[in-house]
Amino acid sequence: MDKAHERRFEFLGLAILLTVWGGTGHLTDRSGWVDALYGPDFTIRHAPEGGVVAEAGLQVGDTVVAVEGVPVGELGMYSRWPRSLSRRPGETLRVTARRGGQSVTGTVVVRQRPPSIWVGRWVLLLFTQTFLWLGVWVLFTTPTLHAGRLALLGIVAGLATPGPDLGSLNGLRDHLEVAGQVLFLILLVHFLLLFPRAKGPARRRWIGLMYLPWVVLLVAQAVELATHPRLYHVFGAYLGILFLGYILAAGLTVIDTAVTLPANEHARSGMGLMLGGWAVALFPNLLVVLGWAVPPGWQIPGSRWFPLFLLAVPVGMALAVRREARDAEAGPAAPATPG
Q1: d(CA 201, CA 106)
Q2: Separation CA 156–CA 183 (nearest Å)
């Protein structure tokens, strides 16, 4: 029995706390939608035509100097504005910007969040909570190393969920959320390298090097927090590279296991269940991605809810760990009888 299983009640306590954390963050957030992107110096880099920022008379290239009379250098670190300056749909924000050598003031009327944003937030919460509680369930019912690793993956998933308003500490909260998301991907790759049997890279000592980019991310985040707003969001490109790199590594690991594992072991080891979960999750969402190539305005009926199929990933992984444990208890399979 591994140490994680011996400390399963500590995992249960963490799961309860993280559920309250994530649930409170989602249920108490009533802020609306402001459709603009800003650079580290608060210069508007994206303001879609017909959007709330464009309708306020602001445009790409304007540099925001104050929001509701508060200089940007004194703003907190909740994205671009502190939570105290966020508004509900229909409410307004008075924004002062510099355009060339002139001052421009616009009133932004906050809108409802687009349905895709609303659905995405709830899918994220359900995805992380499914990982979290299936990990706890497997840990309590299956005393194996794989169960402990899956439970740890679930705990980190809970850490990657947006939390409640922390006032002046919102910037730190958001950075911890992002760090948790990247660590989740790293632990996912590590799990896949070890399940159901350890692959070549997992047997080498330098496997720990895949955590090094995450440590670099933590340093970059500390620099951002210490120099806000001058370097805030400067390392966004690095973060994007990390997400893409670890997602590709996870996908390649799954493909390698599917190809190299003998066909008769897929069912016995639980790998077939895991692959089934990934297939259920990815196929409908791939259709959504392909839908971007069709003419504007066309949409697959019900595709807004296709991200919910991502819940099949933790379900498949949990069932696979349980199946692998039963396989290990049963011992090696009997050789096939000729004829």
Answers
A1: 56
A2: 7
- The string of pLDDT tens digits covering residues 189-242 is 999 999 998 887 766 777 888 999 999 999 999 988 888 767 767 788 899 999
| Cα–Cα distance for residue pair 197/9, rounded to 1 Å | 27
CA dist., res. 31 & res. 34, Å (int): 10
Q: Where are the domains of the chain?
A: 3-28+114-330, 37-109
For residue 63, give Cα distances in angstroms to 146, 165, 221: 51, 27, 24
Can you read off the two tokens belonging to residue 252? 């390649």
| Cα-to-chain-centroid distance, residue 183 | 10
- Provide the pLDDT confidence category of residue 50 given band limits of 50, 70 and 90: confident
**pLDDT per residue over 263-293, tens digit each?**
888 888 999 999 999 999 988 877 777 766 6
pLDDT at 162: 87
Q: Assess whether pLDDT exceeds 80 at residue 53.
A: yes
Taking residue 208's Cβ as centre, other Cβ atoms within 10 Å add up to 9
Are the beta carbons of 152 and 144 closer than 8 angstroms? no
Beta bridge partners of 46: 37
Question: What's the whole-model pTM score?
Answer: 0.85
Q: List b or e across 175-198, with b for residues whose CB sees 16 or more CB atoms inside 10 angstroms.
A: bbbbbbbbbbbbbbbbbbbbbbee
Q: For residue 98, what is the enclosing H or E element? A: strand 92-99
Q: So what's the pLDDT on residue 314? A: 96
The CATH number fitting domain 37-109, selected from 3.40.50.620, 3.60.15.10, 1.10.3720.10, 2.30.42.10 = 2.30.42.10
CA distance 81 to 83: 6
Using only C-alpha atoms, the chain has a radius of gyration, in whole angstroms, of 23
